[in-house]
């Protein structure tokens, strides 16, 4: 498991994402698992939790939307860092997650080709426009490293992963607690349609 930690609020967040997107430069394994710095483990993680049929298990929630405020327009960073890819779902609902090693360089090369610039230059441009107080103003923080990799793998490397879309897919064990979002996510699901959270833990 490779984890890139940097403090500093909003700046720490965008730098952590950048570090995770270069995880293949720090590990030689065929699959690389990453997690968020605010998602502590409360149980042992086994290969059976991370893989199905020999492929990384990718769980996404189709109820999550990346709208910018009330305008029902995709946020700028979704369009920019997403490289125009359609969003199949939110891949940040279960951590840690394993990814094919090729997905990291594949996403970087895809975005570089899409924008016609080096990946670091593209990401620096994103950092210059990122506003840490966006969530306090009613806007979502935008895409995570899990979302970016999930979108890329879904569109360009789909056979390399095992995709499950909640809530239609079977429940899966949740080995971490994503502290800032777990309670909010559970309450949202319970209030929206009365169903019990599908990934609430053992």
Give the beta-strand count: 5
Question: How much of the sequence is in beta strands?
Answer: 5-15%
Quaternary organisation: single chain
Strand order of the largest sheet: 2-3-5
Computed structural class: alpha+beta
Distance between the termini: 21 Å
- Could you estimate the helical fraction of the residues in percent? 25-40%
Overall pLDDT level: 75
Number of helical elements: 7
Specify the overall morphology.
globular
**What sequence of helices (H) and strands (E) makes up the elements?**
HEHEEHEHHHEH
**Could you tell me the radius of gyration in angstroms?**
16 Å
Task: Give the uncertain stretches in residue-range form.
Answer: 1-9, 67-73, 195-202
Largest sheet: 3 strands, mixed
Protein topology:
Layout: H1 9-20, E1 31-34, H2 47-50, E2 51-52, E3 55-61, H3 76-82, E4 97-100, H4 101-115, H5 119-129, H6 145-156, E5 162-166, H7 179-193
Parallel strand pairs: 3-5
Antiparallel strand pairs: 1-4, 2-3
Helix pairs in contact: 4-6
